[in-house]
Amino acid sequence: MGKMLEKEKEVKTISEILDWMLKDILSDPRLSALNEEKNWPYVKYGTVVLISLYLVFGYGAQLICNVIGFIYPAYCSIKALESTKKEDDTRWLTYWVVFALFSVCEFFSDLLLSWFPFYWLAKCVFLVWCFLPVAWNGSDLIYNRVIRPFFIKHEREIDSAMSKVHDKINELADNATRVAADAVKHD
């Protein structure tokens, strides 16, 4: 039991790990100038510039872009689900609806667009704009001006199509269950 409690104490949150890493990095005497508050803007903007350059020229830019557009919003979504406020749930659901629409559109254009040198940087900037905690963020704007009006206008047709898809999926599941049951009987 004592070992289990020790292991639980060893588990750290992401922010604790990042704080530990930052303290460890900043304790290096060669980087002591970074500890000075006057240099923090250079560190912040320098990091943004380095990530931007890597998104343009680096190998694995797609992975970094997708991590930025997925990991942070997923973390915030989990935090929103665990909170009692409804506003943060709505905010992150809106982001995921826009993210899903973007992902479907990107599927058809990705092959062509990924050849452009600034594609991953532009995609990353777009995704960050969509989850920024400001009133003019992209997900609210796109949802309220594009997705919501389209959905309201075509809600009946969408519901009808979704009902047909649901019925077909149930039919396929029933058929698969029957085939599996028959296969088990014959073996």
TrEMBL record:
UniProt keyword list: Membrane, Transmembrane, Transmembrane helix
InterPro entries membership: TB2_DP1_HVA22
Chief location of this protein within or outside the cell: membrane
Transmembrane segments: 48-72, 93-112, 118-138
Membrane topology summary: Multi-pass membrane protein
Intracellular or extracellular location(s): Membrane
A Gene Ontology cellular-component term: membrane
Family: Belongs to the DP1 family.
Name the UniProt record assigns to this protein: Receptor expression-enhancing protein
Organism the protein comes from: Cherax quadricarinatus
